[in-house]
Structure formats: structure tokens, C-alpha cells
Write a structure and sequence with these properties.
The structure is a homodimer of 231-residue chains.
Chain A: E1 2-8, H1 19-30, E2 34-40, E3 58-61, E4 64-67, H2 69-79, H3 89-122, H4 125-139, H5 143-146, H6 150-160, H7 162-170, H8 181-196, H9 207-221
Parallel strand pairs in A: 1-2
Antiparallel strand pairs in A: 1-3, 3-4
Helix pairs in contact in A: 1-2, 1-8, 3-6, 3-8
Chain lengths: 231, 231
Amino acid sequence: MTVKLYDLAGANPAVRFSPYCWRVKMALAHKGLDVETIAWRFTDKDELAFSGQGLVPVLRDGDMVVHDSWAIAEYLDKTYPDRPALMDGEQGRALANFARHYAQNVLGSTISKAIIADIFHVLDPKDRTYFRESREKRIGAKLEAFQISREETLAQMTQALSPLRALLKDQPFVNGKRPAFADYCVFGAFMWARNTSSAKIVEDGDAVWEWRERMLDLFDGLARKSPSAAA
Amino acid sequence: MTVKLYDLAGANPAVRFSPYCWRVKMALAHKGLDVETIAWRFTDKDELAFSGQGLVPVLRDGDMVVHDSWAIAEYLDKTYPDRPALMDGEQGRALANFARHYAQNVLGSTISKAIIADIFHVLDPKDRTYFRESREKRIGAKLEAFQISREETLAQMTQALSPLRALLKDQPFVNGKRPAFADYCVFGAFMWARNTSSAKIVEDGDAVWEWRERMLDLFDGLARKSPSAAA
């Protein structure tokens, strides 16, 4: 049984950098499902018309169509209950929800400042005008002016990572002894940076760095093998 | 069956302001255990000699002595498994651990800047020299110089609360539909401020404010009834 996933790609179709799509690719591997990914660009809105909206990830599983990484994780646990749970029980669901909001509101906002101009250079040329116009409107600045220095990135990330670092000194994964959807939510933010930028967002040897290494190794190095567009 | 809890108190013995003791008081109420609290001050180190260390919370349950709020929560779940769980399963434990590190590293560090000089005035006179010397050594500044303005407090807290706010827009408690130990870990930080200071740390009507109201109402208003030393 192979599912299909629409997956954000760059000019190089092998570069797949969406943090939300990474959550789903890790979740599918966790469930042991084979996936065929379809390279998709921001401006390919028509290709997603069947999903009733215009953003990835979009999952096709037989006749079922599900969009949004959170909805996909819930769908997978409901549809494949005999495979390892992504969110275990009410408290496991709450953990994943806390982790995804931390990933978006704390990590994502800092990482976006660190890589936004780098992302522009990774994009397929047909996406560049869309990306620049939509993001510059949102941030109220030119991409190049908004992006912070490598030194500032590491300083801000060190601060943003403080609760995650403390957690990972106590336990090997965000989810505890074994990784699950809370880990994939946080890890997506790291893959977004890794696939698009040379910005260093965590110091070597940090507890978070050690965790990221473990995550890169999961599922036969699924994430580690993914090409980066960074120089 | 009544357990005993050594609980940090101010000059007014009814003022009980330790964030770690609040975690335990809420946890004991969650378990439906009656508790006799014993007012304790920072300099009463000898009174805790039986516990092998010098910090509260310390719980006495019959012949058992347990210190440290996390160890106490684990002890309560293990000893009273038929009562509502504080941490449900491996992922529930991970959630509580993430919440406590967020409470300490993110909320606690901001709140400490907002209230540290206020705490000094709440203390029993015999604790004041100890508190001033130990805290000023740690922060490298006078308490009064370190404490930030009320305006700066609200700005920094609004930022620090962002992942919690997003979470609480989705679900009524940190733990999901019902409160448990992850909620009590975060709530302890709010009680620390409430019992010692008039600093406003969350805007009325914010999703976090609404959650704090629900927490203050739990267990017949256990926390709401607790006296504040703030002017």
C-alpha cells in the first residue's frame, strides 16, 4: 500500500524543505507506510484543487485526501491503529500539540529570520516572485534586510532552544524513550533550515544537536539523505 | 490519611509562594489526598535534615519522605495508582517534563525579573539576608536594579507565553481536556507571582488568562483562596 504526498520542492526537485511536509514524511515512516512523494511548488495551486485548498502537505491514501500536517497525523493514527502510535492517548496528543506550537511560535519564528533570504535562492524560478511578494508583505521588509547574521542566529537559537535542551538532557526524545509525532513537529523546523541554508542553528555537542543526530539517523537515515541546497 | 508538606512561607505564615510547592499542593488535591502544610522558611535548613537536603517541597507520607516536586509527583502516581494519574503513560510523562522545563527556563526566568525585589518584602525578616545575598550573587546585581518595570514585564511575558497561548486556544488545559501535572508545573510559576507581587503577567482575556482562571477555580478554589502579600 503506497500513499502519495504532495511535497514542497525547490528548483532542484530533490530539495524538499517544508517543515510541515517533514512532519508527515517522518510520521509515514513511523507508521511503516510506503510513500510516493510528488514535487510541488508554491505556485502549483491548481494541482491541489482536489484537496479544496492550496497548501502542502496533502496526502492521498486510496480515495482519502487529507491536508494539514496535524490532520494527517490524526488521520494516520485513526486509520492505522495497529501500527505504532504517533500520539498516545489524551496526554500524548497534548504533548504533540505543545511541541508543534513551540516549533512554530518559538523555533519557527527565529529560524525564519535566519534563513528567509536563503530560501529565496532555493526556490524554483517560477515561485520567486510569489515568495518575495507574499513574505515581504508579511514581514514588512526586504528578505535580505530581514535576515539576521549567522552570529545573531546562533545567539537567538540558543535562547529559543532552552526548554528543549533541558528536556533532552533528561530523555532521549521529546516523546520520551522513543520518538513520535512531538519529535517530528520539532524536527521539521530543523530540516527546513538544513535543506535551505548553511546557517548553524545549534552548537555541536549541545543536547539538542545530539537529538538532531538521532533524528537524522531514524528510518535508515531518511532525513540525513535528503539533499540540501545550501552552499 | 493525611500527608505532611513543608511549604515555603513569608513573614505572614499564610503566604505560601513557592512555585515548586504549588505544583505539589495541586498534585495532592488532584490525587484527593488530605495535606497538612507546615510553614517553612529558607533559613530553617535544620528542620529538613530528616530529608537529607535543605529545600522544599518535602513530603512526609507515613514513613516515606520524598523531596523535589518532580520526584513527589512520580511517587504519588506510583503509590496511589487507583487515583487520577498526574502523568499518564510515557508520553504523558514527557509532556509534564516539557511543561516543567518551559515553566522554569522560559516563564520562570522572565517572572523572576519581574518580582525578585517584591519577593524580598514578602519574606520573614530572618530570611532576608540569606535571600538578598544568595540571589544577588546569582544575578550579579542588586535585587532592586534587576527587577524590570511593569510595562517591560507584560511585554516580555506576552512573548514568553506565545507557545502556551497557542496551545490553550486549541484545548482547555495543558494536559488536554483535563488538568494534570503539566498544568500544575506551569501554574506554579503563576502562583509564585500572584502570592508575592502586584506585577501583571498576563493580559485579561488572553487564552492564558482564561486558563489561569480555570486553574484558580480547581479544587474549590484552593489556589484562589491563598493569600497574597502584594499591595
